[in-house]
């Protein structure tokens, strides 16, 4: 039987771990035989030395096998899911899941809560009065097969890839999150265990993303697409820009409001563009080519699905959304063009206002966040409102303001227009 100190030393010294070693480490860590300290050392060795394709694939399979694997194939439905590597103002799942369901493909999505400057889909949906993230597999199946709904977004149960759950919590506090094999195996173990029939990845690139550089985002996307293919899961990826926030809001209830605007046929252009691009990709992955999702947004069927999807999970889609008790508006101090609106700065500001959490398990403020009154490239006049900060804790405003100011620049020259969708990656 392998022993953990030898495994750590071998990875530290740049050797390739065997399949037996990987299976044993993941199993022993899941059951507490390998300690958190030992797994942290191994994660750091992986951070420095990386893992080969074979190691990453075996690591992913071992994490899937540490728990339960859902299987919706008996429902007789086409299913497809989308996963984003995380960005600021990324509320795309909210309009996307009902939109794809309205096009005839079921969406079973297990999502997470936010940590740090990127928001979590469950936190956003939990801003809707009554909405419940915790469903059993039978409840998921019932919603997926309901012809009036067909989309479900809920929390992953504790027995889905439990090794990843434990390892991710450790990586978060040991500086070992930003490793391509560890991120890829973490995301793909959960998505494969979730039992979707096809998967589309939205891999973010830029200041507000894990991957700041195009080359590393491309490598992450390729690794995940290959891991999906290895497990027989049809997986494609879009590389999309995350230098500025998506849309005009970052924060839970604020983002729900914007998602509903998109479903009503309005909303910011970039949110609409990415929602439709990902919907097209998902439909293609599911083998559907006779419907254009843009039509389903226009004709209101996606909005009907949204209302049904929220109600199916106990939410009241027509209830007023929570509003923060305090606001502060930031005004431009000069005439010019908004030449920088940094996603990371806006994400940190929203987080400091109470939209995100510092530790797992903390509550978030549903009404907190940043509302933008201008977007990159807009012409601005001195004194014009640029952003409004929302919070229930006014003492948080100065720190949030300081973060926001770091990321906003008004100058004489307009920034070069960059495409939102940069590249498509397939197996
Ligand atoms: N999201 C995950 O689920 N895992 C990672 O490692 C990074 C982002």
Explain what the structure shows:
This protein has helices at residues 4-12, 19-30, 36-49, 53-65, 93-102, 121-125, 137-145, 162-172, 180-193, 214-230, 252-263, 269-285, 293-298, 301-312, 343-355, 397-406; strands at 81-84, 107-111, 151-155, 198-205, 234-241, 249-250, 326-331, 336-341, 369-372, 379-380, 385-391, 408-411, 421-426. Strand 4, helix 10 and strand 5 (234-241) form a beta-alpha-beta unit. Helices cover 43% and strands 16% of the residues. It folds into 3 domains: 4-49, Transferase, Pyrimidine Nucleoside Phosphorylase, Chain A, domain 3 (Up-down Bundle); 73-319, Pyrimidine Nucleoside Phosphorylase, Chain A, domain 2, CATH 3.40.1030.10; 326-411, Alpha-Beta Complex (Aldehyde Oxidoreductase, domain 3). The chain has a 4-stranded mixed β-sheet, sandwiched between helices. A 4-stranded antiparallel β-sheet has the order 6-9-11-7, with helices on both faces. The protein has 427 residues and is an alpha/beta fold. It has 16 helices and 13 strands. The mean pLDDT is 95. Bound molecules: uracil.
């Amino acid at each position: 039987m392998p022993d953990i100190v030898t495994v750590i030393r071998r990875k530290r010294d740049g050797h390739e771990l065997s399949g037996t070693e990987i299976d044993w480490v993941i199993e022993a860590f899941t059951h507490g035989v390998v300690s958190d300290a030992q797994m942290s050392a191994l994660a750091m060795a992986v951070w420095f030395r990386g893992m080969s394709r074979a190691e990453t694939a075996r690591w992913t399979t071992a994490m899937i096998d540490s728990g339960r694997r859902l299987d919706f194939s008996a429902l007789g439905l086409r299913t497809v899911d989308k996963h984003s590597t995380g960005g600021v103002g990324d509320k795309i799942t909210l309009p996307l899941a009902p939109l794809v369901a309205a096009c005839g493909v079921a969406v079973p999505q297990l999502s997470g809560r936010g940590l740090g400057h990127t928001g979590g889909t469950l936190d956003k949906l939990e801003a809707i009065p009554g909405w419940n993230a915790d469903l059993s597999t039978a409840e998921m199946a019932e919603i997926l097969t309901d012809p009036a709904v067909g989309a479900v977004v809920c929390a992953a149960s504790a027995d889905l890839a439990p090794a990843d759950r434990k390892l991710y919590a450790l990586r978060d506090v040991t500086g070992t999150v930003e490793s391509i094999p560890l991120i890829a195996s973490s995301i793909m173990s959960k998505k494969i265990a979730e039992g979707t029939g096809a998967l589309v990845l939205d891999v973010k690139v830029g200041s507000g993303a894990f991957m700041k550089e195009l080359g590393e985002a491309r490598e992450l996307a390729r690794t995940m697409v290959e891991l999906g293919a290895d497990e027989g899961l049809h997986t494609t990826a879009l590389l999309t820009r995350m230098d500025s926030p998506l849309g005009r809001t970052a924060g839970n209830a604020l983002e729900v409001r914007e998602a509903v605007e998109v479903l009503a046929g309005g909303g910011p252009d970039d949110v609409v563009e990415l929602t439709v691009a990902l919907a097209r990709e998902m439909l293609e992955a599911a083998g559907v080519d006779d419907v254009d999702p843009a039509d389903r947004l226009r004709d209101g069927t996606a909005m009907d699905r949204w209302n049904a999807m929220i109600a199916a999970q106990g939410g009241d889609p027509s209830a007023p959304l929570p509003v923060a008790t305090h606001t502060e508006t930031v005004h431009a101090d000069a005439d010019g063009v908004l030449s920088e609106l940094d996603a990371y700065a806006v994400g940190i500001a929203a987080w400091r206002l109470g939209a995100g959490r510092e530790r797992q398990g903390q509550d978030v403020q549903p009404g907190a966040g940043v509302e933008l009154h201008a977007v990159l490239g807009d012409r601005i006049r001195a004194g014009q409102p640029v952003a409004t900060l929302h919070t229930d804790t006014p003492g948080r405003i100065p720190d949030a303001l300081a973060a926001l100011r770091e990321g906003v620049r008004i100058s004489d020259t307009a920034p070069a227009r960059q495409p939102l969708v940069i590249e498509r990656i397939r197996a």
